[in-house]
Amino acid sequence: MIRLPQNWIFTCILMFVSWTGTSVQAALPQPTLQAIHRSADLMIGETLKMILADDSKASVTLLKLIEKTDSMAGAVREAKVLVEVNGEQKWLTSANYNLPQTVGGVQIDCPITRGYNANSGEDSWALEKDARLRLWPKGAAWIEPGTFVYPLKQRWFATSTQFSNEPTYVDGGDKPDRKKIYYHNDLDFGGCEGLTEVIAATGGLVVSVSEKTLSGYSLTPVRPRYDVVYLLDERGWYYRYSHLHTIDSAITLGTRVKMGQRIGSLGKEGASGGWTHLHFGIKSRQPSGKWGTEEAYAFAWEAYQHENKPAIIAVARPHHFIRAGETITLDASRSWSSSTIKTYDWTFTDGQTASGSKIERTYTKPGAYSEILKVTDAAGNVSHDFAIVQVMGSDDKNLPPTIHPTFWPSTGLKPGTEITFKVRTFRTTGGETWDFGDGTPKVTVKSDGNTKALAKDGYAISQHAFSKPGDHIVTVEHTNERGERAVGHLWVRVEE
User: What tens digit of pLDDT does each residue of 146-168 get?
Assistant: First the structure.
């Protein structure tokens, strides 16, 4: 049996001190809280017997691993593992907006498989075997209740995201000829520059602000930069908040912040690629003994559910990346409802429609498509999401444009509320047209086309207020000189 000590993270730190011969790390604060889940790295065919957080036992075997890559850059687009837990077998899809599943009387997920490290620029996971599995007791929370909140004040999926092994794409970075793939192991929450508020997901010690770091943290995951804040929580986990437009004056080196305290405002500073988002990531000690990514999608999902209690959430992600002429499956099966989802309705960029949780589509023209998903449950609750499909032509030098729209505020909207809309195109010069979907005239603006990624005025700004309540699907698009379109959508809910 594998039984982790109560302060196993601290034990790992002390082991690291011994291995490296340094005394610096011994000064770090001792963790006072243990995570609910247990992690295991396995080779195919390997079995581990584990003792979980509630002292229940689990026997887990990694039976098979299948990884699918795209036809161009060879990037992993889907990884599946067949696991056996306490005698029950089940296929799990690794990361990419998938939540833990119940198998063999426990909860389990697979945050990472070996293929994601094969053509990546770095190993962010510290994975030394074929796959990592995380196990929770049956019915347990995924992260300790009362210790984690959603890290920004914004509606779920308010705009584009790059989550959990999804290759980066919003800024046009998903390219056919790239040799190294940046799989986004952390969470990129798109938002509105300078307006979307970023808050502390946990209470913790401020170990790094901007370019300053506390003494003694040189051998930790901390990598200081002018737009970044690092917090150390009571589990011994390091939390990274990056690309901040502003950092709150109360976030000072060596102070302790409370869970939910303002960190600053979301931006596009640093190595953002020019699109506005919060890069949120967690590093913890992994089974290899090294610092690696602690996959945070399930934690963010659970926190948002607890705080906002949505009745239904549509999920049409991750994005797709194909050559013209290829066929893909649009998948809405990750959507969730507190009752039962009755219908999955799709409206495509070309005006066609379809129904079903999984739909096959063939794309013949290059461009960036945004396919509208509407899910409705038995209680009549409705949610929308958008499947982004980036279609490449035959010429790898002349790539179609991409687009990033966003808006603020995204919650608490009433008729007459003035809303700020921002948009920027990539791989092309600007020139975007908004259709707010309420019968008002279209509005044309012009962003800088990401000619200078960190330009303060890179996004084109519009203001709009809806006169009536309802679910408004807002469209913005750009067409380049070759006639290739980039289409983006936003779902704006205006309450009575």
Answer: 999 999 999 999 999 999 899 99
